[in-house]
Amino acid sequence: MAHPAGCLFDLDGLLLDTEPLHAQAWQQAARHFGRALSDGELMQLRGRRRLDCADQVRQWISASGLVVPSTEALLAIRQPIAEALLIQAQPMAGAQALVQRCLDLGLPMALATSSSGDAVKLKAKPHPWLEAIQERVHGDDPELKRGKPHPDVFQLAAQRLGVSCEESWAFEDSPAGAQAALAAGCRVFVVPAPGADRKLYPNKVTDFLDSLQDVLALLNEGTQ
To answer: Are 178 and 204 in contact (CB under 8 A)?
Structure first.
């Protein structure tokens, strides 16, 4: 199997085990305003930009007939909780080894994440191995028009690497992220969240992985 022209990585829930921590922060913030979130609702927030998530949570609060907080008020509760939790995030299985293997093979890499630049700095600080991924598109990138599930973040990441999406591999964990990568034209590898229903993912996704360790074998095939 030929190597990809580039590897485009999501961050949360894919390279770092942050998604349960994000869910905990959104749950506590929503409950502060009287609305508990279901597991299905929390899954819908995965992979999306912070402001998009805040808008969604505010819609759920409104639909429950409760007083709807402003985005600023909701995030004022959520952000300190999230920041205290996220610095504890550990690498996902195989993540560090995969990044190192791509580095060894000289494969261009980019982050294509919904997280803001400041949030990425916070989460990545305990993980110097992430510095190998130097090209990054953040959720608050001034050139990013739309967040996931739109394809823009992957298109912009590939553009900055000087490669085509069609010749690149994208790695995701969330349904929104998988949809974005497919729409961009990438070959998409998905490591589903534990217990996630695969029916939530686009039906065009065929490359489901147990962990990122599975990708190492595919890359090794391309060197033989």
So the answer is: no
Query: Which residues are known to be catalytic?
Result: 10, 12
Alpha-carbon distance 20 to 43, whole Å? Answer: 10
Q: How does DSSP assign 45-103, residue by residue?
A: HTTS-HHHHHHHHHHHHHHTTPPPPPHHHHHHHHHHHHHHHHTTPPBPTTHHHHHHHHH
What tokens appear for 185 in the block?
Answer: 């034209």
Could you tell me the pTM of the whole model? Answer: 0.90
Domain covering 19-86 assigned CATH 1.10.150 in the classification: yes
Angle of helix 71-86 relative to helix 117-124, nearest 10 degrees, comes to 20
Nearest to 133 by CA among 112, 152, 155, 154: 112
Edge to edge, the sheet with strand 168-172 lists 135-137, 109-112, 6-9, 168-172, 187-190, 207-208
User: For 88-147, how does the pLDDT look when each residue is reduced to its tens digit (9 = 90+)?
Assistant: 999 999 999 999 999 999 999 999 999 999 999 999 999 999 999 999 999 999 999 999
Domain boundaries for CATH 1.10.150 within the chain: 19-86
* CA 138/CA 4 separation, integer angstroms: 22
All CATH 3.40.50.1000 domain ranges in the chain, comma separated: 6-17+90-221
Task: State the Cα–Cα distance between residues 102 and 95, nearest whole angstrom.
Answer: 11
Cα separation, 9 vs 109, in Å, equals 8
3-state helix, strand, coil in the chain (%, to 5): 50, 10, 40
In CATH, 6-17+90-221 is 3.40.50.1000: yes
